[in-house]
Amino acid sequence: MAVPVEYYLVLSAFVFCVGVFGLLTRRNALLFLMSVELMLNAANINFVAFSYQYGNLTGQVFSLFTMALAAAEVAVGIGIILVLYRNFADVDVTEATTLRW
User: Transmembrane ranges (predicted)?
Assistant: First the structure.
C-alpha cells in the first residue's frame, strides 16, 4: 500500500512555508542559508512525488540538479558568511549594508 501523493505535497508545502518564514524573520546569515535549503528541499519533495505519480524519472533528475545547485549555493554562502564574520565579528545581515562602496 503506497502513500498518496497528497501527503508528500502537504509535507512539501509545510517545509516550504517554514523556509519562507525563516527567510523573512531571521537576521542571521546562517539561518538564511538553512531557510533556503529548506525551500530547495521542499521543491525536491515535489519533484520526486510527481515523478513517482507519473512513473518517469524526470523529476528525480531535476531533484539531483537541485541538490547540486544547493551544494554550490552553500559553498558561496559560507564564503560570504566568513567575510561578514571577518569584517564585522558577527553574521548579522543588516550590518552588510556598510560593505557598499
Answer: 6-24, 31-52, 64-85
